[in-house]
Amino acid sequence: MITYKFAYNLQQNIIDIQTLSKENKAGVFTCLGCEDELIPVLGKKNEHHFRHKVITENSCSIETYLHRLAKIKFYETYDKCLKEHKPFFIKMETYLVCDFYENEFLKVCELAPKISQFELTQSFKKIYLERKENSFIPDVLLEDTDNQRKIFFEVFVSSPCSQKKIESNYMIIEFKLDSKKGIRNSEKDIDEIESCLLEQSEKVKFINFYNKLKDNYCNGQCFNEIIIPYSSNELLYNIFVVFKSGESDFINNLQIKQIDSLQSKILHLEYISVVEPIDEINFIKNRKFTRQKEDLTDRNCFLCVHHRPNKFSDREGTIFCQPLNKTGNSNMGIKCLRFRADPHSFSKYKYIEYRDIQEYENSQEYDNIQEDNEKWF
Q1: Is residue 200 part of a domain?
Q2: Is residue 193 a part of any domain in this protein?
Q3: Does a structural domain hold residue 220?
Q4: How far, in Å, CA of 377 to CA of 369, rounded?
Q5: Would you give the DSSP letter of residue 71?
Q6: Residue 127: is it exposed, middle or buried by C-beta count within 10 angstroms (0-12/13-18/19+)?
Q7: 206-225 mean pLDDT
Q8: Considering the domain boundaries, does residue 231 fall inside one?
Q9: Could you tell me the end-to-end alpha-carbon distance of the chain, in angstroms, rounded to an integer?
């Protein structure tokens, strides 16, 4: 005979048999599984329980009973916390990531995982039972005050969350109940919900929760772990550098100690993450235009009205200077007496981000600008 610890009362509230006595057992009680009438049994020998008034066990679903019990218990417990301004916590494994050196060395320090506790009721102050959210109907829906973040509470008795629901990226708390281990043991699992603390385990899964917490946790003390092992194995960096002399360059394959040795001569340094081959000439040109745009003094051939691309196959260098009839790199302008950064000429260049250069240079707009530049040269 199937017996239960919980039942609906006449107001459709869940009643625990332990709250009843011979004095207050009167009333109508119904089953969460099949909604037939239940009778409270409060004998002295056996454990108190509800049993079906009429034996209809074949039509009563234990899985339905456990599913309804868990979702309604969560709804009632969480709703009570909101109304009484009490906390409801979740506890899960999180991974601390120190980002102290991320900008400089493109590396982060991943610390050992730890268990972190979060108070849900501090942010998620709205709760709904089986309310539709897009194409889903979660067992319970939690929502923050701005309606931006949502959490699904889903009870798993026989079927876990669908792949479609998981791939929706909604945060999901999946609460598992195993009907095979017996009604009483499964009912005891509900105690975790009533404790107002859900902790990550085989029974409780947190899906699509962001559990990598990035911040400055090491305050630079992770330097040896991040940089030294790699630099000792000749980890190499690409940099764009502007020297105090005014010269600038894109330098490949430098070790950290080599970069450190240049520090006294450097005015501006930028680490460059290069995944694919880079067009260094266009990169430097773009950075020069950027500096000019920011009103920084820079004598570079790319900013001079006299420079042209080097089209001589027998001469080295990236540019050709018309007055000097000379080819070379863009740093010739630093000491050149013919240098003239004509604002009108310079304005013919279009300021663009480097990542757009290749696409831009294949456009008709670029061809038109180059024709205008030739006129001014």
Answers
A1: yes
A2: yes
A3: no
A4: 12
A5: H
A6: buried
A7: 82
A8: no
A9: 99
